Amino acid sequence: MPQPTSTVPEIDQNADAQPPAASRTTPPLRPHTAGRDRANPSFERSSGDAAQAEIFYLQKQVQSQTLMVIHMEDGERLEGKIEWYDRDTIKVCSKTRQRVLVFKSAIKYIHKASEHEHAPSGSIR
């Protein structure tokens, strides 16, 4: 007579074991974090006084709704008012009311639009 087969799967004794360190993968780099050192997260944060200066400057621009020009690392230029910001991003509302979320790591520099009008000749427009 044939033996009945079990419908209960066998339990793998090694199921709870962690995979070896060599087989673990790190999460993929995203374009806005490509140049950062993941092993040293303090690398991506500004030092004390510089961070406070950045926070103060951005708060002032948000409160006064100053028209700003943001020059990106890739050469693109964005003009608008800063609506809010956090550690890694800035939300900008352009003149056409289009809202754009910009990673700080993709910004080359920022200045007020009024400063741009009074720039000496030969500067980037």
What does it look like?
This protein is an alpha+beta fold and 125 residues long. The protein has a domain at 67-125: SH3 type barrels, CATH 2.30.30. Helix content is 18%, strand content 26%. It has helices at 48-64, 113-117; strands at 67-72, 77-85, 89-94, 99-103, 107-112. A five-stranded antiparallel β-sheet has the order 4-3-2-1-5. Strand 1 and strand 2 (77-85) form a beta hairpin.
Question: Characteristics of this structure?
Answer:
125 residues; SH3 type barrels; 2 helices; disordered C terminus; alpha+beta; 18% helix; 5 strands; 5-stranded antiparallel β-sheet; single chain; 26% strand; elongated
Q: Order of strands across the widest beta sheet?
A: 4-3-2-1-5
CATH architecture of the domain at 67-125: Roll
- What is the structural class? alpha+beta
The overall pLDDT average reads 75
How many β-strand stretches? Answer: 5
The general outline is elongated
What is the CATH C-level name of the domain at 67-125?
Answer: Mainly Beta
Largest sheet composition: 5 strands, antiparallel
Percent of residues in beta strands: 25-35%
Which fold name corresponds to the CATH topology of the domain at 67-125? SH3 type barrels
Termini gap:
90 Å
With helices defined by DSSP (H or I, 4 residues minimum), what is the helix count? Answer: 2
Multimeric state of these chains? single chain
How helix-rich are the residues, as a percent range?
10-25%
Low-pLDDT windows of residues? 119-125
